[in-house]
Amino acid sequence: MKYKLQITKIINNIITRTHSLHPNTPLKNIGIDSISFVQLIVEIEKAFNIEFPDDKLTLSQVGTIKALCETIAEIKGRTGLEN
User: Fold this and answer.
1) Cα–Cα distance measured from residue 82 to residue 2, given in angstroms and rounded to the nearest whole number
2) Please, what is the average pLDDT of the chain?
3) pTM, two decimal places
4) Mind giving me the DSSP string for 40-59?
């Protein structure tokens, strides 16, 4: 899954985890709360040079690594930055 490794590294830095995460595990289940979710989005935006749309700024919309990967791919596809 494209972007999974980078996203996992960012999550591990935010919540100090040292093991891999399943793409479908809800982020809430691994300790991501609303504050750390905002931090996660900011770090992802910096790492991928993108801006999340407002409708994707909630855990209910992008609450798994898989959903984050799909959203990043969608954003990059729209802006022509799909690499």
Assistant:
1) 10
2) 88
3) 0.82
4) HHHHHHHHHT----GGG-ST
CATH of the domain at 23: 1.10.1200.10
Q: Which two tokens stand for residue 49?
A: 């040079």
In tens, the pLDDT along 6-22 reads 988 899 888 876 566 78
For Cα atoms 55, 38, 29, give the angle at the middle one, nearest 5 degrees: 95
Q: Which domain holds residue 49?
A: 4-79
The Cα–Cα gap between 82 and 75 comes to: 8
**Residues with Cβ < 8 Å from 76, sequence gap 6 or more?**
48, 50, 82, 83
**4: its two tokens:** 């999974």
